[in-house]
Amino acid sequence: MVAGRAARRRQAGPGPQLSGQFRPRGHQEPSAAIRIFSRFSHRASGPRRIFLGRHGPVTRECPLCELWSGIMGLVITAGKIYGRLTVLAETRKAMPDGTVRRAAECRCDCGTITTVQVSDLKRDMTRSCGCLSREKSAQRGRARVRHVVRAGDRFGRLTVIREVRLYTSDGKATRSALCCCDCGNRSTPAVSSLILGDTRSCDCSRGRPKYKWKRCPACGTLARIRRDRRACSRSCGYQLARAARQSADPSADVLHHRVKKTRGPASNYACVDCGGAAEDWSTADSSSDDVWGRFQPRCRKCHRRYDGAVGEGHPKAKLTAERVRELRARRADGLTYRQLADEFGISDVSAYAAVNRRTWAHVA
C-alpha cells in the first residue's frame, strides 16, 4: 500500500540542519513548534523553507541552499547565451539605492551592448536589450516608433550632420541631431522636434533677436537693450530725448515730434491724395525746417506709395512682383503654406498674407 505524503515525511525524518561552522551571521534558530512543522520546498524559484506560524505559512530562504546557490548557482561564463543576450564579461552594477550588485556585460543579437544583473539572467527575467519587448508591442499594434535621422536629411532649412546625445542638468539623456542651417549656423535640436516639424531652422527665420547686449549711450552701462530702443532705462531715454530735441541737427524722430506738437495728430486732417482720413505725417520737403511746409497728412496706403515703400520699394522686401505671381500660382497647384515658405525663403505667415492679398495687393 502506498503511503501518504504525511507518512513519507515521518519516515524520512527531519530535514538537514545547519552545523555551527556553516551557521550564517545573525542566524536565529526557530522555535521547537515551528521546527516540527517545517519542511523544505525546492522549487524553480529556488530552495525555500516553509514554516507554519500563528497567522499561517511563512516562507524563508533556506540558509544552506542560499549559501550553495551563491557559490555555484550564479556562476556565469563568457560566451553563455541567455535568450538574445551573449555574456561578454562579468562586472558590477551600481543600483539607485547605492548598492553594488553582480552584473554581466552582454551583447544583444541586435548589436546593442547592455549590462544586466546576474540574478535577472539566471531567473530568465531579462532576455534582450529591450528590442524583444518592442517587437512584441509592434505585433500588438502599440509599438513606440523610434524615429531615425540620417546624415544628409533635410528638415526645413536644417541639414542633419549626425545624431548626438545631450544631457540635462539632472542627467537625463535626450536624442538630438547636430544640424547645419542654410544661413551657416549650427544647432542641436531634439529629434522629436525635427520629426514633428516644430524646428525648421536655427531661429534665423524669425528674424533678428529682440534684445541685444550693448552699452547705454546715456550712462555707459552694459545692458540688454531692445533693438528698437537706445537707452537701458526710462530715465536714460529721457536724457537722450532731451539732448536730441536741443540738437542743432535734429533727427527725423525729433522733427515728427515737433510737427505733432505744433499741428496736432495727423488724424485731425484729411489725406492730401485720396481725401480719406489721414494717419501719418509724411515728409514732403526734406530741405525745409518749417514743420508746416515739411510735412503733409496722408493715409497709410498713400504714405507708403508716396515714399516708394510699396512692394519691391520696401527696403526689407524679400519678394518681387514676379515671385509673388509665381507664389500664388504654386498655391493654386495645391502646395501648403509651409512648403511655399521653404521654397521661397519666407515664413508661412508671409506666404499666407501674399497669397490672400493681405500684402502685395497691388500685384495682379
Question: What would the keywords be for this entry?
Answer:
364 residues; alpha+beta; Thrombin, subunit H; 6 domains; 4-stranded antiparallel β-sheet; 24% strand
Short description:
By secondary structure, this protein is α+β, with helices and mostly antiparallel strands. The protein is built from 13 helices and 15 strands.
Describe the protein's architecture and organization.
There is one protein chain. The protein has 364 residues and is of the alpha+beta class. It has 6 domains: 54 residues, no CATH class; 63 residues, Thrombin, subunit H; 47 residues, no CATH class; 39 residues; 58 residues, no CATH class; 35 residues. Helices cover 30% and strands 24% of the residues. The protein has 13 helices and 15 strands. Strands 4-5-6-7 form a 4-stranded antiparallel β-sheet. Strands 8-9-10-11 form a 4-stranded antiparallel β-sheet. A 3-stranded antiparallel β-sheet has the order 1-2-3, covered by helices on one side. A hairpin with a 4-residue loop joins strand 6 and strand 7. Helix 12 crosses helix 13. The radius of gyration is 40 Å and the shape is elongated. About 13% of the residues have low confidence.
